[in-house]
Amino acid sequence: MRQGIPVKLAVVSLLAAALLLLTHTWARTASPFHDLDLLIDIRHELLTGYVEELDGRELNRAAIEGMINMLNDPHTDFLRPEDLERFEREVRGEFSGIGAEVDVDEAEGRVRIITPLPDSPAWRAGVMAGDIITRIEEESTLNMSLQDAVDRLTGEAGTDVTFTVRRNGEEHRITVTRERIRVQSVRGLSRGENQRFEHMLDAERGIGYIWLTQFNERTLEEMSEVIDRLKADGLRALVVDVRFNPGGLLDEARDVVDLFLPRGARIVSVRSRDGTEQVLDARLEPTVSEEIPVVVVVNNASASAAEILAGALKDHDRAYIVGSRTYGKGSVQQVRRLEAGQGALKITNAYYYLPSGRLLHRRDEAPTWGVDPSEGAYVGLTDREQREMLQRRRENDALRPDNNADAGPLTPQRIEQELMDPQLAAALRAAIGRLETGQWPAVGAHDVQARVTADERQSLVEQRQRVHERLAEIERQLEALEVVEGDEVPDEDGDAAELEELDVRLEPVP
Question: pLDDT at residue 3 above 90?
Answer without folding.
Answer: no
